[in-house]
Design a protein that fits this description.
The chain is built from 6 helices and no strands. By secondary structure, the protein is mainly α. It folds into 2 domains: about 60 residues, no CATH class; about 55 residues, Orthogonal Bundle (Arc Repressor Mutant, subunit A). The longest helix has about 30 residues. About 10% of the residues are buried.
Length: about 120
């Protein structure tokens, strides 16, 4: 039963990470000041630019502590415990900040999910 639960946890984490891969590469480019490349269709480029702007705006609206924890987790590849150690904050605080940041991003960018349907 423990092995099954661990396997399901890993599968869910893999799916979650795969879903965020495209969003994170766009967000990383936004923080680096680079436009996302590889788009040849002008309409797709315009849509990509609009999505990029929305993502940057949503990340910019997060409180600094939440944005820092989110960046370290997704862009820095650190675990929650690693972030807690690096920032000298309690583990529970880091987990809460990341959870709240993700909730705010989901709410702020919910219209994107609705448009894809």
């Amino acid at each position: 039963m423990i092995a099954r639960s661990r396997a399901l946890d890993r599968l869910r984490a893999w799916r979650r990470n795969a879903a965020w891969a495209g969003v994170l590469s766009t967000a990383r480019a936004a923080f680096d000041g680079q436009p996302s490349g590889g788009v040849e269709d002008p309409g797709a480029h315009l849509e990509s630019t609009e999505l990029h702007a929305e993502l940057v705006a949503a990340l910019g609206e997060l409180p600094a502590e939440q944005r820092e924890a989110l960046e370290l987790a997704f862009f820095g590849g650190l675990s929650h415990a690693g972030i807690a150690g690096q920032t000298a904050q309690p583990l529970g605080t880091i987990k809460t900040r990341i959870r709240l940041a993700m909730q705010k991003l989901r709410q702020r960018l919910a219209f994107l999910r609705d448009e894809d349907l």
